Amino acid sequence: MLKIVSMAAFSPKSTPPYNVRSVSFPARSHPSLAKLEQKLNKISSWQVPTPLKAETVLGRLSSLGEIYQSIEDLLNLPMTQQALLQHQNERLVDGMLDGLMRYLDICGKTRDAALLMNESIRELQSALRRSKAGGELSIQSNVNAYFCARKKMKKEVAKSLASLKKADNIFEGSLLLNPSDHFLSAFVRVLSEASLITVSIFTSLLLFFSVQMMKPRPSKWHLVSKLVHKGVLPCEGQQENLNELESVDAALANLLVPSSGKDFEAREIHSVQQRLEILHASIEEVENELDSLFRHFIHARVSLLNILSQ
Questions:
Q1: Which of 15, 76, 77, 184 is packed most tightly, with the most Cβ within 10 A?
Q2: Is the dihedral of CA 160, 162, 164, 167 positive or negative?
């Protein structure tokens, strides 16, 4: 039985490859299986970079969508349908249905959390545009609301990560099929590999959203100033070492440092606005990819249920 790498291995401080073994099928595997095998093997060789940025997450989500499109195509093959109907492996079918439902749940909750996050970003952007009229208190209030949204997202992420831990063995026991049925055995191995990769990619997505918040307490803004000047908080030259969420955090920290110059404040507001725009666009793209994945999971589940109802 293949085992997914532990959640600890996906710590933001480490950069392990996906711990997914290369798929190996019979020499006369069906062309659709062979094509999916190539995709799975390509993904299994990926490294998880540090920092984990939106571009990387989006690329993996897009590739995962292609994997499930291929699985949909396989489920629509007459030979797949015939194989599943003939063997009626209850544990296999239950594992497939349960896995898809678990991924649907995580996908939906993560998408909803991303939507709420983008709402708080839009509100903060609006407050910054009104900053000359609204004053510092208006900005600080919306900054606090933004970090509250981040905190809520981290809670949802923690729940989803716990749920993912239960998804790495959904095909346990299902690989013990009749070895003479090469096609069904190969199909099940594909599903097992796809399940492991799904857990890996969802884990990287959730870790992207749960990076440590650099949020100082409202009464301690003078400490932020000291941290900035001592180089503890990232400065402009260090931004390449931050992902989009961390970059916004750093810009907000700099913005709220007490200063006497209007030019400094204007520059910092502009910097925050730029980074918020990048983060907003990135999260919006993640939402779109999750929407697409959600539909793939639904279609795959419906196809499977249609097969069982024959």
A1: 184
A2: negative
